[in-house]
């Protein structure tokens, strides 16, 4: 089994999931321009799943071109609300707007991972989870946002499922690691067969 990789992401949660599963990782953020790539893909009518897959692959391939002989993992998660992509907030006003859009509705959280070697993708996987948000008042949403740190808010697609965010939902279907941005079971299965 391969148990040492490069993580092409600065996500502390993804790093922790890998480490908790005995995968040693070194962080090398890809720093790709996600917003312009998303914009371009949306103009081509790409689905949220395709956008998530493409971003994960671009991140992994970019870092893999620098470290040719190493295994690089790229990952991306997007919120799919009725076929429309919801991007990460850049401030608390946007965060409240996003929570309002999700309020009382079911959305999909799409998490894609890509493993690259030698500058090219050698494996990828996409998993989805379905989350139904409770009907909440504006005051409840504002109160939730006041409990969340900036770091958590901007790196967790508005909600922290392993923390306060769980209270926002009446129903959660799917793998918790997928919701946190890394479907680890499938990654480990692949690393187990990789030489």
Give your account of this protein's structure.
The protein is of the alpha/beta class and 195 residues long. The protein has one domain (4-193): Maf protein, CATH 3.90.950. It contains 8 helices and 7 strands, in the order βαβααββαββααβαα. It has helices at residues 12-20, 34-43, 48-66, 92-102, 138-147, 150-155, 176-179, 184-193; strands at 4-7, 24-27, 72-81, 84-86, 106-117, 120-133, 169-173. Strands 1, 2, 3, 4, 5, 6 and 7 form a 7-stranded mixed sheet that branches. Helix 4 (92-102) packs across helix 5. The longest helix is centred in the N-terminal third of the chain and has 19 residues, at 48-66. It is globular, with a radius of gyration of 17 Å. The model has no long low-confidence stretch (mean pLDDT 91).
Helix and strand arrangement:
Layout: E1 4-7, H1 12-20, E2 24-27, H2 34-43, H3 48-66, E3 72-81, E4 84-86, H4 92-102, E5 106-117, E6 120-133, H5 138-147, H6 150-155, E7 169-173, H7 176-179, H8 184-193
Parallel strand pairs: 1-2, 1-3
Antiparallel strand pairs: 3-4, 3-5, 5-6, 6-7
Helix pairs in contact: 4-5
Features:
single chain; 195 residues; alpha/beta; Maf protein; seven-stranded mixed β-sheet; 7 strands
């Amino acid at each position: 089994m391969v148990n040492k990789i490069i993580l092409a992401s600065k996500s502390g949660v993804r790093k922790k999931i890998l480490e908790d599963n005995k995968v040693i990782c070194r962080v090398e953020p890809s720093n790709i321009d996600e917003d312009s790539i998303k914009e371009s893909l949306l103009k081509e009518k790409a689905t949220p799943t395709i956008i998530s897959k493409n971003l994960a692959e671009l991140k992994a391939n970019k870092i893999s071109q620098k470290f040719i002989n190493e295994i690089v993992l790229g990952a991306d998660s997007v919120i799919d609300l009725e076929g429309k992509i919801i991007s990460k907030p850049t401030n608390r006003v946007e965060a409240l707007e996003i929570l309002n859009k999700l309020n009382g509705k079911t959305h999909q959280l799409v998490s894609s991972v890509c493993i690259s070697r030698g500058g090219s993708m050698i494996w990828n996987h996409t998993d989805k989870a379905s989350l139904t948000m409770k009907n909440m008042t504006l005051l409840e949403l504002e109160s939730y946002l006041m409990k969340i740190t900036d770091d958590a808010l901007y790196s967790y697609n508005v909600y922290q499922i392993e923390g306060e965010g769980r209270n926002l939902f009446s129903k959660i279907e799917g793998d918790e690691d997928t919701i946190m941005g890394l479907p680890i079971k499938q990654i480990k299965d692949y690393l187990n067969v990789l030489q």
